Amino acid sequence: MNVVTLKDLERRFGDFVAVKGVSLEVAKGEIFGFLGPNGAGKSTTIRMLCGLLEPSGGSGTVAGFDIRTQREAIKQNIGYMSQKFSLYEDLTVEENIDFYSGIYRIPGAKKAERKAWVLEMAHLQAQRRTRTGQLPGGWKQRLSLGCALLHEPPVLFLDEPTSGVDPMSRRDFWDLIHQLAGGGVTVFVTTHYMEEAEYCDRLGLIYRGELVALGTPTEMKEHRMTEQVLSLSCDRAHDALTVVAALPGVRDAVLFGRDIHLMTADAERIVPILRDAMEQAGFEVRALERITPSLEDVFVSLIEGKDREEGAQREFKG
Amino acid sequence: MKFHHEDTKNTKEPRRKAFLSFAFLRVLVSWWWNSPFLNRFRAIARKEFIHVLRDPRALGVSIALPLVLLLIFGYALTLDVDRVPLVVWDQSVTPQSRELEARFQHSRYFSLVRQARGYGEVEEALDRREAMLALVIPQDFGRRVGADRNTQVQVLADGSDANSATLAMGYAEAIVRTYSQEILVARVRRQTGREPVPALELRPRAWFNTEMESKRYIVPGLIAVIMMLITALLTSLTVAREWETGTMEQLISTPIRGPELILGKLVPYFVVGMVDMLLSVLAGRFLFDVPLIGSLWLLFGVSAIYLVGALALGVLISSLAKSQLLASQLAFTMTFLPAFLLSGFMFEISNMPRALQLVTYLVPARYFVAFLRGLYLKGAGLAIFWPECLLLTLFAMAMLALAVLTFKKRLA
Amino acid sequence: MDAIRVEGLGRRFGEVVALDELSLRVAPGEIFGLVGPDGAGKTTTMRLLTGILNPTGGDAWVDGLHIVREADALKDRIGYMAQRFGLYPDLTVQENMDFYGDLYGVPRKGRESEMERLLAFSNLTPFRRRRAGNLSGGMKQKLGLACALIHTPKVLFLDEPTNGVDPVSRRDFWRILYQLQKEGVTIFVSTAYLDEAERCNRVALLHKGKLLALDTVEGVKGLLKGTLLELRSDRPREAARLLREARVGSVALFGDRVHILVAEGEAGQASIEATLKGSGMEVLGLKVIEPDLEDVFTSAIPREDA
To answer: Chains contacting C with at least 3 CB pairs below 8 Å?
Structure first.
């Protein structure tokens, strides 16, 4: 069963098409990562999904409600949490939970039960009377999550939930999210941090209002990238870069720490050419190997590919 | 050529010297002009000007606010009591009582709103605030006056506005006293057939404010109070804003020094403040019809000093507060309240408790209020008000020094 | 001479130790990464080294100048880009750059060419009349960098420069940093993103004010004890749960993959396969992978709420 379905979703602001023809489906219990650079249409799409903005075209449902006609119902059936989630630092853990219970209008009989659930889920039973401001970052984050889940929404939206958090707390947080998803909550994550994207079951990349790629992180790394990535380790990498970048068949070359990462359509063909060129220019090649691209490599390559395509189209038209 | 040169060498020597010293001066000026200090000072001032000009709303408020305050307070605080509503209960109904009534009616200070026919009506008129003052003439008034006997009239006042009531009572007393004196004179003339010569005659004449209009007294003081408030508010935000938005962290990582930053920040607000001052003076002249008797140059000269002090105080508050909200609240309480209450503007300093009087010496507005009133009403200049001007200069210098010294190029 | 020399540098705020006896050296022309989560002490270190915060212990020299005693001279030689860039939103790109140029006393004559170069370098030339407040996040960040470079500093301090910036702009930004490195500028950059840290020549891992590791990226990765395995499974959540219960190693679930850190590669592999097959689960793939800095970090620091 799909909890989120979007079909040809479109949103215009005057002449500007912020989102065009986005179609996707997210299954119950799935953690879906929605990625894209700023201004790519990410937040416009999320606003439409949350019932805050009406689409100009296409259709969609969230938790079974129509995003055009049942926007109020959607608002009551989703949870939302971001890194900047508003917890009141001068209130205790319990007072924050009570406050959000009030906001979500949890019926009196259920209040105690939900509070107990949040405290247990977030491992905050012992801290219930602690001022929120005194909690470490990772704990606050779990409390935010708990507050966003008080009204048991079937869909949870997370906006860069773990940026700037230490890796240990981040792993714990994502374990919690996976548990929730295992329990049937559908999670929709927006971020432009690849470190967060790695934790998702499936990813969608939006760029210039269009969905450019869709797939699991592994699929993305193994199949979505048209180029292959080589890592070259040599002396005087800065100088070598100019030689490498000038070689035909090398699409892009960047420094990466002490190494050079280069993108090429055909790694096998380029390796001998590269070795020759380096030798001729007097560089000593210490290592040259094909590496699995990182998610960032994939996305940058997809986005640049899109740019090239549109540039070519423009030239063709012009 | 060479000969010619040597020939004229002696005669040209003084000119050459003059030229050299001029060149030296030019080098000095250009060195100073291009010194790091002035460069950075100019950079800050230029940037602050852009901030001021690119925020039309804030600029509009800083220009309009003093005028609005001047209008509101100017009209609200005018202390003249005019056309006091009066109720009269004339129980005597005789030519003598009518005469007294007429004197009240013809005075510009009173206007008869009601003829009462009983004590209840008098009370009602005062309760409903239809009338502020009641004149009760007893039944035997005409008879007793006619019989040359001592008599009394009663004046009741609504004391809820104590100031106005006191003034109105004063006017009433004056009318009654004049009437009483005339009766007395007539009586003596009748009895002795001679013109009586009063033992003492008071001939009051107000100097400097011949029409005794309070606005002439209020408006100059008000300008002093408003300028203090506006200017401190203007600058109170500038440093705090940079702390809040994080640009200060960047600034203090550059070679900028405290004096350059503080002085640079003052320049644009000084200009705005002087424009405000000019507008206030114009408004005083043309809206309130308050003429300036003294020198206009002196007015702006001393105002400039006062402004620098107030602006520096604002910057001082701003760099201590580090948050815009706190800074503006502090600026308001630290400038407006003392300037309003303790400068002698609202309340006569000599009537204050001794301890409070001492405190007023610390309120710079006190000196400016005194100076402005002197300049406006009496045309008094530096010859009389040099101590005030000196103290204002000291205040400005102290504030500048404090603002520069408290600004730390360090976090925490 | 070291571009940056830090010896026992510390800073307390009351009871809180923001930075605890940090010692490190950065060679001229190096890109050095200060890596750690929020609250690790990165910004405090930056502020100490740029002379805008006084230390409560220890010493440091930047380009040979002491950060407290010679703070004023120091400020002429360094560029600093604070976390919030220090731009004035109501000033245009050009005005912001001119402002900082004036503050650093860069002569107005001859500044033009440097400015052109920096604008071209950061792709901001078409936007020089645009107000800084109307720039995108990535452009603001590049403008912040251009302002910090206007006086051609020898050492550049960047405090989380790519925070909130998308991957494409981030990559552009690093291209610029490498270009600067080529010109001989020493770059001291802080980041909370471990994937970004891999771009630095050397890194210091910081956690709660303490130095966890200081080495090249490869060297730091070598600190990880054990072998990292990546498991692919059709039911990754269940697999992760089973492996945790069986205590075969430290387990982390990433979407469709499970990472397991085991003490010894082959034995670990065998016990993972045994555990999963015992519960009737299929193993789609199990291979040894290169750890990243995040793996090192998570194994090096204690859990805050264990």
So the answer is: A, B
Q: Is B51 within 8 Å of C99 when comparing Cβ atoms?
A: no
Domain encompassing residue A256: 226-292
CA–CA separation, B5 and B44 (whole Å): 50
Q: pLDDT tens digit string along B338-359? A: 888 888 887 888 888 888 888 8
CATH of domain C4-221: 3.40.50.300
Do C and B touch, 3+ Cβ pairs within 8 Å? The answer is yes
Residue A166 is nearest to which of C163, C178, C207, comparing CB atoms? Answer: C207
- pLDDT band of residue C303 (cuts 50, 70, 90) is low
Looking up residue A110, the CATH number of its domain turns out to be 3.40.50.300
Residue B317 lies in a domain: yes
Q: What is the pTM of this model?
A: 0.81
Tens digits of residue pLDDT in B368-398: 999 998 898 888 888 888 999 999 999 999 9
Q: Which residues of B20-38 are buried (b: 16+ CB within 10 A; e: fewer)?
A: eeeeeeeeeeeeeeeebee
**C 156-215 near A (Cβ less than 8 A):** 163, 165-171, 174-175, 178, 181-182, 192-195, 198-201, 207
C138 neighbourhood in chain A, CB within 8 Å: 38
A59 with A167, same domain?
yes
Cβ-proximal residues to B274 (8 Å cutoff; 6+ apart), any chain: B300, B303, B304, B307
Model ipTM value: 0.83
Mean pLDDT of C281-290: 88
If you classify domain C227-290 with CATH, what class do you get? alpha beta
- Give the closest-approach CA distance of B260 to chain C in angstroms: 10
Other Cβ atoms closer than 10 A to B351? 9
Q: What is the DSSP string of B88-133?
A: EEESS-SHHHHHHHHHHHHSTTEEEEEE-SSHHHHHHHHHTTS-SE
With an 8 Å Cβ cutoff, is C88 touching chain B? yes
Domain with CATH 3.40.50.300 in chain C: 4-221
Per the structure, the complete domain to which residue B260 belongs is given by 55-77+213-406
What confidence tens digit (pLDDT) does each residue in B284-321 have? 888 888 888 888 999 999 999 999 999 999 999 988 88
The residue-averaged pLDDT of A80-94 equals 82
Same domain assignment for residues B219 and B96: no
The answer on A262 and A165 residing in a single domain is no
Chain C residue at shortest CA distance from B411: C53
Number of domains in chain A: 2
